[in-house]
Structure formats: C-alpha cells, structure tokens
Amino acid sequence: MVVVSGSNSGPLASQLAESLGWEHHVLETRRFPDTEGYTRIPSETIEAVRNEPVVLVSNTFPDSGIVETLLMLESLNDVRKGELHNLREIGPQTLPDVGKGIILAIPYFGYSRQDKRFKPGEAISARAIAHLLATKCDGMVVLDIHAPEVLQDLPVPISFTSAMPELSERLQGTVAPDFILSPDKGAIDRASQVASLIGCEFSYLEKTRIDAHTIVHKAKNLDVAGKKVAIVDDMIATGGTICRAAEALRNQGATQVHAACSHGLFTGGAIARLLRYVDGVHATGSLSNAVDSIPGGPALSRGVHEILDKLDLKPQ
Ligand code: R5P
C-alpha cells in the first residue's frame, strides 16, 4: 500500500509510511501566478496508487489546504477509476476501474473550531468541510480533533486517533511530571488519559473564553506545591489558555510547568510568549512548528489500521 502527501504534511506522511512499512510518494503541487492551486499525480506514482489502497495525508488548514486536499482527492479518484485521458495523449488514456480504496488521513482538521451553531444562520463549519471531503474518499482518519461528535453521520466511515500515548512517552521521558492539568473541561479526556498512562495526579480548570485573546480560569486550589506539572491540551493557538493556567500553577507553588499538545498552531509569536510562563513546550508535527518533538506517525498508523478494518481492506 502507499502513502501520498501534498505540500503541507510531507514529514508526517513519511513518519506514517515508516510506521506502516509502506512507500511514501509526494504528489506534485504548485500555484499558478494568481495563487490558484494545481496538483498532479506524477506518472511514476500512477501505478502505485492503482495497485492497492492509498492513504492521502493532508491538512485542511489553512484554507488553501482544503482546496489542495480536494484537488488531490479528485486526481486520486480519476486515476483509480482509470480516467487518464489528457490533451497531450501521454500514456494510456483509460484503464480499468480498480474500485474503492482512498483513505484521507487528516493530521490537523482545520475548521474544527466552529463545531456548533451558536446563533441562527451560522454554518457548522466542521460538518460542512467534512461532508465535502467525504464525497471524494472512502474513509477518513482524523488526529485529535477537538470535538469528534461533529463528524458523526458522515457518509463514509471515520476513525478518530490520538497522539496522547506518544505525548505521554515524551513527557515521561523528558519531564517525568508529578501532575497533569487539563486547562479546561474540553481537554479532560485527553489530559486524564495522559495522567493515567504516566501514573500521576490529575486535575482540571474551568475556563471561560471572553474573546479569541482573553480567557479567565475559575479559581481552584490545586495540590501542586513542589511538583512538576504538565498542562495537556488538544491545541495551542495564541497560548493564552496555557499562560493563564501556568500562572495559576506557579502561584500555587509548582516548581516546573510544561505545556504539551497535539496541534501547535502557535499564532502571533505564541512560542516566545509561552516560554515566559512555562519551562518547555511539546507538540506533534501535525502542523509545522518549532517544538515538534512528539511523533504523530504512530497515531495515524493506528487510525489507518482501524479504518482498513472498517472498510474490510486488508494491507497486502
Ligand atoms: C479550546 O478549548 C482548545 O482546546 C484550546 O484550549 C484553545 O484552542 C487554545 O487556544 P489559545 O492557545 O488561543 O488559548
């Protein structure tokens, strides 16, 4: 089987291919002068993506990632259907349809933020994007999406996978924390999983978001005096959530504070800001970032195995 990627997930696709023991092919992607995207499956990759099921690793972030993902899926569908006719008459123009077998693995699902309709008339963006992608693949794997519920009822099977086991290993190996903190209720499942994998104490904060840059935590006594604490979240964007939680921890006597997440968006100088509050920042490479130290490939590999089972497609 084969793993392919475009412009935004090459290193993670390589990690996935290595975890699975499969080939990794990079698809051609470029931009026209007016910035519109172009994708192509190189001639030497056409046979590979027709011979066996194929996993496309691609982020739906930023917006250009959505378009690139859709275009690459379109090319994969055409090639697997054998629709190869082209104006230059290069190669065979048609081949037999090789059937289903396109899996989309999304390390960072962009547009997962708007997962509910808060006011009448709003688009539920996560659902809209997922349904669009589902029209062009046979199954999906999504890594550590904030609220998986929003992707229920898709017309294709989906596997949710998580890098928390690898995040736990990283924290245990470099920090050996005594205490794991979830900075809000939304991260409780992930952070408590990390605490139980490490075998340490756990608690959570209650957060209210005032706006994109301002959050407040409800005061809470945490038993962290003299302890090394790691704050675990699904994503870090501005860093505001982590900075406020780190302040609370320091005020209550934590000796070290670390931050760990799956998705390091790190907007507007967030890493520099974070390093004024925490002793270390750890993220996967789901998005390219300067603190990519947690392997994301094994989690994607678990998701791919699960979706292959659901689709009854066995690796050869
Ligand atoms: C939201 O609840 C997420 O889990 C994160 O806590 C949030 O997106 C982090 O954003 P920021 O770094 O801007 O506080």
Description:
By secondary structure, this protein is an alpha/beta fold. It has 9 helices and 16 strands. The site of ribose-5-phosphate has 15 residues, from strand 13 and helix 7.
Task: From the structure above, extract its key features.
316 residues; single chain; six-stranded parallel sheet; Rossmann fold; alpha/beta; 9 helices
Topology:
Elements (H helix, E strand, L loop, with lengths): L1 E4 L4 H11 L2 E4 L1 E4 L5 E4 L2 H9 L2 E4 L5 H19 L20 E5 L18 H10 L4 E5 L14 E4 L2 H11 L4 E4 L5 H11 L2 E4 L2 E5 L2 E4 L10 E9 L3 H12 L4 E9 L5 H5 L5 E5 L7 E3 L2 H15 L5
Parallel strand pairs: 1-2, 1-5, 5-6, 6-7, 7-8, 9-10, 9-13, 13-14, 14-15, 15-16
Antiparallel strand pairs: 3-4, 11-12
Helix pairs in contact: 1-9, 5-6
Bound molecules: ribose-5-phosphate.
